[in-house]
Write a sequence for this structure.
């Protein structure tokens, strides 16, 4: 589905870039505020997964769990954050997946380089942002990140991608 | 008894690296010891393969790794579950790809089209006449896909052993068979099934470090400070009177003081197995009450009470898996290298229980055991620092001495208080027993 105009394209892509910048900068509080109260951060365990209630996931975090993760990352004795995880997000291939009366669903492609210690890790996959209109912007009702290697064994995933 | 400064000769036999209440660092760091473990421990013990529910129909298969062997668990047309080496007898190709699926009515090798029945026996080869008057006898059962020497099932849980001689599966399980019983008894229909996918985590540490941590209560308050504090802070930020959410209960519990853990009795059984007793507290949330009602409707109140009184934290089935009966999961431990371990987390559905029971088990899996767990990364960091620290010349021995000499004997094992290092000593007793005898001397 194509953008209505250049202005809409710019607003949508800038929203995604802003979200990615908050993650890379560890500006967690501002990132948490991007979600609706019922918002979900979801990383499926298998390709094409549609059910997160009756199937395990890599991440399935509501407001409580997102907040708890951020609190943990900021603890002095988070030994697995010595050093802290650093990420570099690149977002591309942004398009409108669908339009709803109260918002839009945006599809994009994501690449993230992550480093904590040892060798850097790279992640890639497709992302779907379900955005609800909020003032003159949006709030995220669902961010679904499907890694191309979601079924593979992983070392610990500590930060949001 | 050697002193702590003793340096062992490089040719010390492996079982001599275990001194009862301490072990030499080489058991965790020496690649040659790891290879010997593959032969003598994993090449001999009953190893957990999978659950029958993963291969419901004829031809259904599931692949895994036992020791260093790639294997296939599959369902034959007679209903039996077989465990075969995933290796074609012709050129050696892995016959089925890693993962699970259906082979149809028979196995067919991708390379030259040799076919086999689902019990591994040879069905057909192309150019059969080419083998006439050669040394290859196609009628010899040895020329099928090789089976594991022994396969046995305990209430749907499939185990295999690579040697023909040794204790039967029930004798091997000994005192932890009751954990597998309780795992199934908790289902209103008395059976469980694997569901909801499998999570896989890579650890950068020796497999034994993970096993030891399963009954290491003393690490919880120290290692998990970041997650239990985060959970407590999260709960404190909620409005006064909010019932403590499940997601917080299962994370902030690690912040309990050492006196709490001391009261949780540990049991250790021959073979390195064991479990940790929990303290029975009747659950009162709506999901638990609906589950108890379903169990009572099927089993009656008295039997339900008896089943739920068996309240255990991690069980250890040494050296291949750890069932958690009350959260319906089995963690399967697969050593990949001396310093690399794969842990696979399978969640089970209790047949006859409400969907909400299974969904809560998945929540436990997602929050506590998935690669994104808030609890596990600090464990993995600790294991990795142990692995890296043990490479140092700063010391040769690892202490297992807490509460040594105070274990209480039990039939087939012993018990201790929750803070004892008895489980580690018990696992190394079994380990030394396996390692003392060369392969072929079962």
């Amino acid at each position: 589905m194509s953008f209505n105009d250049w202005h809409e394209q710019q607003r949508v892509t800038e929203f995604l870039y802003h979200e990615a910048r908050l993650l890379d900068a560890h500006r967690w509080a501002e990132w948490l505020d991007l979600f609706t109260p019922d918002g979900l951060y979801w990383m499926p365990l298998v390709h094409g997964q549609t059910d997160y209630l009756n199937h395990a996931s890599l991440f399935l975090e509501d407001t409580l769990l997102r907040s708890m993760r951020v609190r943990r990352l900021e603890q002095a004795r988070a030994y697995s954050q010595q050093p802290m995880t650093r990420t570099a997000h690149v977002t591309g291939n942004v398009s409108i997946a669908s339009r709803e009366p109260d918002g839009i669903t945006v599809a994009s492609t994501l690449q993230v380089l992550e480093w904590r210690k040892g060798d850097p890790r790279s992640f890639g996959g497709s992302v779907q942002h379900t955005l609800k209109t909020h003032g003159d912007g949006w709030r995220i009702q669902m961010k679904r990140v499907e890694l191309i290697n979601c079924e593979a064994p992983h070392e610990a995933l500590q930060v949001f991608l | 008894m050697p002193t702590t400064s003793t340096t062992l000769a490089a040719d010390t036999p492996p079982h001599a690296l275990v001194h009862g209440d301490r072990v030499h660092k080489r058991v965790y760091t020496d690649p040659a010891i790891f290879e010997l473990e593959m032969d003598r421990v994993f090449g001999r013990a009953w190893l957990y393969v999978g659950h029958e529910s993963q291969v419901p129909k004829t031809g259904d298969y599931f692949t895994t790794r036992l020791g260093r062997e790639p294997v296939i668990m599959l369902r034959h047309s007679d209903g039996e579950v077989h465990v075969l080496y995933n290796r074609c007898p012709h050129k050696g190709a892995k016959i089925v790809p890693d993962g699970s699926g259906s082979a149809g009515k028979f196995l067919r090798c991708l390379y030259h089209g040799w076919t086999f029945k689902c019990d591994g026996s040879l069905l057909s080869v192309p150019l059969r006449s080419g083998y006439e008057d050669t040394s290859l006898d196609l009628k010899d059962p040895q020329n099928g896909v090789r089976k594991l020497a022994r396969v046995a099932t305990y209430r749907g849980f499939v185990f295999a052993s690579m040697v023909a001689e040794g204790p039967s599966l029930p004798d091997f399980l000994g005192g932890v068979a009751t954990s597998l019983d309780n795992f199934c008894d908790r289902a209103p229909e008395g059976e469980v099934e694997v569901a909801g996918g499998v999570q896989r985590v890579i650890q950068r540490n020796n497999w034994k470090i993970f096993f030891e941590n399963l009954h290491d209560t003393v690490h919880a308050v120290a290692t998990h400070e970041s997650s239990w504090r985060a959970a407590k802070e999260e709960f404190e930020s909620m409005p006064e009177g909010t019932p403590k959410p499940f997601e917080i209960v299962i994370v902030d519990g690690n912040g309990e003081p050492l006196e709490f853990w001391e009261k949780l009795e540990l049991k250790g059984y021959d073979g390195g197995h064991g479990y940790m007793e929990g303290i029975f507290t009747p659950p009162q949330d709506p999901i638990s009450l609906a589950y108890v009602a379903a169990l009572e409707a099927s089993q009656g109140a008295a039997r339900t009470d008896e089943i739920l009184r068996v309240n255990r934290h991690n069980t250890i089935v040494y050296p291949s898996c750890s069932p958690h009966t009350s959260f319906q999961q089995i963690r399967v431990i697969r050593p990949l290298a001396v310093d690399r371990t794969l842990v696979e987390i399978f969640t089970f559905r209790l047949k006859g229980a409400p969907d909400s029971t299974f969904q809560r088990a998945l929540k436990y899996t997602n929050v506590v055991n998935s690669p994104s767990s808030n609890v596990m990364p600090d464990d993995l960091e600790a294991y990795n620092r142990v692995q890296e620290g043990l490479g140092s010349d700063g010391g040769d021995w690892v202490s297992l001495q807490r509460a040594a000499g105070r274990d209480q004997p039990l039939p087939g094992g012993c018990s201790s208080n929750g803070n004892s290092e008895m489980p580690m000593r018990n696992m190394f007793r079994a380990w030394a027993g396996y390692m003392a005898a060369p392969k072929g001397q079962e």
About this structure: DSSP finds 14 helices and 21 strands in chain B. Residues 1-5 of chain B have pLDDT under 50 and may be disordered. The radius of gyration of chain B is 23 Å.
